[in-house]
Amino acid sequence: MVQQPDGGRRSPLNRDRVLRAAVALADAAGIDSLSMRNLAQELGVVPMALYKHVANKEELLEGMVDVIVGEIDPPDLDTGWKTGIRQRILSARRALLRHPWASRVIESRSQPTLLVLDYLDSIAGTFRAGGLSVDLTHHVMHVLGSRVWGFTQELFPASPLPAEPEAHAAMFRELAGRYPHIAEIATSGAHDEGSVVGRGCDDQFEFEFALDLLLDGFERLHQQGWQSGNRS
Amino acid sequence: MVQQPDGGRRSPLNRDRVLRAAVALADAAGIDSLSMRNLAQELGVVPMALYKHVANKEELLEGMVDVIVGEIDPPDLDTGWKTGIRQRILSARRALLRHPWASRVIESRSQPTLLVLDYLDSIAGTFRAGGLSVDLTHHVMHVLGSRVWGFTQELFPASPLPAEPEAHAAMFRELAGRYPHIAEIATSGAHDEGSVVGRGCDDQFEFEFALDLLLDGFERLHQQGWQSGNRS
DNA sequence: ACCTGAACACCGTTCAAGT
DNA sequence: ACCTGAACACCGTTCAAGT
């Protein structure tokens, strides 16, 4: 149940209230619970009342993406392009971590909103201001892909561990037999000892590791004067 | 309508026929048309008959992913790790391009299947055989992310262009005014002249550009003897 | 003119009745 | 024991009836 100080009835319904309620509902109950019917109930109105403020569910989801994009920090103009991009993307990541449903909604959109284009244009502008060519900026934006939003498509979502220790151990022995390389990764390093694949990984470390690898690669290409058809 | 040489009735229903029909239906009519009810109709059976061969829709989708994973070429053991990984991933990409729905299904799974783990273990094994440390192999697998499947999460899906040239031109002028950096990317290089963002990009070039940037980065870290907490 | 209840055309899945 | 039609508990959205 999402908190509603005014019982969801005092102020008249408007687009902003609809969007904020949708975000709150998705935050609290998960994106699968966000139906037009549930949202209407949360707001104390009949489902059809929502269609006065959003044309359909697609437009509702678009609006929710805009709410999240609005939470990304504005650019810091006093740094080099590398630091600027890095800070911006890590800010986007913080926004996304506050709204776990957002990455799935972003990747399911078929049209960018104006706010989304603003953000992307600003990122591209930072590369250009840093001296990267139009061409290199273009390709580099593609390489970043969903990472500009602060998330990455993982190999597979973290599997929930079996709760009982003995089932856990049994599963791990089976895993180690059939998948030796995955097992050695899972058992190595700073992980929970004996954790199963994907658990115990430090998501933030992995994200920054990848981001810095990419930014270093971009810088190297830029300094080498990269041009199309000119790959070393 | 999916082709059914035997009218979908001759051979008795089994799991394999269900999965192959599901893949064919998704290929032909799109993943949104793949419902248990539609699939049953395609096979000439009552919807509940499917539940004898798959526990539920989740398991059906898992089985479909396995069909696609089965189409990835086996590893070529006569090359270095870099070429080996590159070939394997480009093979996965070809399989995915044959089944446009597959990337969305892969990213929506919550549990890897045994075949998926086989593939990932094989990729990790190639890095290890090339001499990369367990730690570096681990992080490098995370950096690849969905790229091991041959797809990337784009910034946003390609917007369909307005069909009428004048609407097209008007949209582009508006775009250029508000989004100068996106516009200069869209108008530059080898694209359709005046194309809108995301259209006219050579997806295969972008994919290979990113993949090679990453593989070069991995090689550099490996040669530098990268270790955790040792980033230059 | 505005609002909204009922209805439409779907889902995935359960369950009990029929063979 | 097996199979399956009807039913359940949902969807997003249309539409016409009521105010």
Present the secondary structure layout.
The structure is a homodimer of 232-residue chains.
Chain A lengths: L14 H15 L6 H8 L13 H13 L11 H18 L3 H7 L5 H16 L4 H11 L20 H14 L1 H8 L15 H21 L9
Helix pairs in contact in A: 1-3, 4-6, 6-7, 7-10, 8-9
The structure holds a DNA duplex (19 and 19 nucleotides).
Describe the overall structure.
The structure is a homodimer of 232-residue chains. The first copy, chain A, contains ten helices and no strands. Chain A folds into two domains: 49 residues, Homeodomain-like (Arc Repressor Mutant, subunit A, Orthogonal Bundle), CATH 1.10.10.60; 156 residues, Tetracycline Repressor, domain 2. The N terminus of chain A is likely disordered. The termini of chain A are far apart. In chain A, helix 1 crosses helix 3, helix 6 crosses helix 7 and helix 8 packs across helix 9. With 232 residues, the first copy, chain A, is mostly helical. At the A-B interface, helix 6, helix 7, helix 9 and helix 10 of A face helix 6, helix 7, helix 9 and helix 10 of B. The first copy, chain A, binds a DNA duplex (19 and 19 nucleotides) through loops.
Features:
DNA-binding; homodimer; 10 helices; mainly alpha; Tetracycline Repressor, domain 2; 232 residues; disordered N terminus; Arc Repressor Mutant, subunit A
